[in-house]
Specification:
Number of strands: 14
CATH superfamily: NAD(P)-binding Rossmann-like Domain
Strand order of the largest sheet: 3-2-1-4-5-7-11
CATH class: Alpha Beta
Number of domains: 1
Strand content: 15-25%
CATH architecture: 3-Layer(aba) Sandwich
Radius of gyration: 19 Å
């Protein structure tokens, strides 16, 4: 089996690569990535891409047809990956997260691939303060990022048939330690604040709901999707990926951090503009379809893992929200140095670009 992973050099990709190598030791694994965050290793004793058979550097907006030769499965992780980046780069977000996902899926199908796994998001539910959202609930995307996931799912569905299975995993908000750590995620942010300053500063009043999921459990869900056949969920499947046990209000996450890490104080911003991105999610369908690949991590251990990882990094940056641990800050830094243009393409001349195998 040959598996192509787009966007493999970000926060989630190294953990997914590790899971795939463990689950499918004989598979031929290929990574395809722009390399924005390739140098942002934060907690790894080896280059995560060493677990691949091949690493290609390239832009999903311009993927050569040869990349899909003999590919059986495509895992689409490539994304402008949060609301802040989506706000700053709305057109790029729609192109990378939505339009390019469709182009890649079509090219893979034309080349003979049998399966396409798309990293979607529960953020598409937007403002939903009543009952937990199921896959049949109306979507209410409030940001460019969330809209890109809605559009991608819509246009992926017609591509699915008896020869091409499409699985869209609507992930809860990611958290947990990774070889390329991000701190622009709610739980990771809180632990970083606790380590660097002894404080958890919530930017809202703490009331919004957020389902969360450990990156290791995301990787387990992706492994399941790679193995899934059409008899288990249909030729096209969009499913909430997470656990009912991991629906939390933001204030609950902050208080959990203060319980695990001694001496931490929690502060809310009661004067903040209300955060409309509040939703609980029902994960019963995922539990039914993937009983052997359910989330196994727990909140306290995840917080402890993040704490231990940051301590091992000698992390002490109180101003981390303006650092390169935040994806938008790193992209802006690359733009300021003229390495990236406004479309987030590398500014190097084509003759200087190389794909490394």
């Amino acid at each position: 089996m040959k598996i192509l992973i787009t966007g493999n050099m970000g926060y989630i990709g190294p953990v997914v690569t590790n899971q795939l190598r463990s689950s499918f030791p004989d598979a031929f694994l290929v990574g395809y990535d722009m390399g924005y965050f390739a140098s942002s290793l934060t907690n790894s004793v080896f280059l995560p891409e060493n677990q691949l058979d091949m690493q290609l550097f390239g832009d999903v907006r311009n993927t050569p047809a040869s990349v899909f030769n003999d590919v059986d499965v495509v895992i689409y992780l490539a994304a402008i990956s949060n609301d802040a980046m989506g706000h700053s780069f709305e057109e790029v977000t729609l192109d990378v997260n939505y339009k390019s996902a469709i182009r890649v899926a079509k090219a893979a199908k034309d080349a003979g691939a049998k399966s396409f796994v798309f990293a979607s998001s529960c953020s598409m539910y937007g403002a939903a303060n009543d009952a937990a959202r199921t896959e049949q609930s109306d979507v209410n995307p409030l940001t460019a990022y969330a809209k890109s996931k809605v559009y991608a799912e819509r246009d992926l569905e017609p591509l699915a048939d008896e020869n091409f299975t499409v699985t869209c995993l609507r992930f809860a908000t990611a958290c947990g330690m990774s070889p390329r750590l991000r701190l622009d995620l709610v739980l990771n942010d809180f632990v970083a604040g606790a380590v660097s300053s002894g404080k958890v500063n919530i930017l809202s009043d703490g009331s919004p709901w957020r389902p969360i999921i450990h990156v290791k459990d995301m990787a387990r869900a992706i492994k399941w999707a790679v193995e899934r056949d059409a008899e288990n969920g249909g030729e096209f499947l969009a499913v909430n990926a997470g656990s009912n046990k991991w629906n939390y209000q933001v204030i609950d996450l902050a208080q959990a951090v203060s319980k695990v890490i001694p001496g931490v104080r929690v502060f809310t911003n009661k004067d903040a503009v209300p955060d409309k991105r509040s939703y609980r999610v029902n994960f019963e369908l995922f539990e039914k379809l993937a009983p052997n690949d359910q989330p196994i991590c727990n909140l306290a251990d995840t917080i402890q893992e993040l704490y231990d990882g940051l301590i091992a990094m000698s992390f002490d940056n109180i101003d981390f929200r303006n650092s390169n641990f935040m994806r938008l800050s790193l992209l802006n830094s690359l733009r300021e140095k003229k390495h990236l243009n406004n479309e987030l393409s590398w500014s190097f001349k084509p003759s200087q670009k190389k794909s490394l195998i």
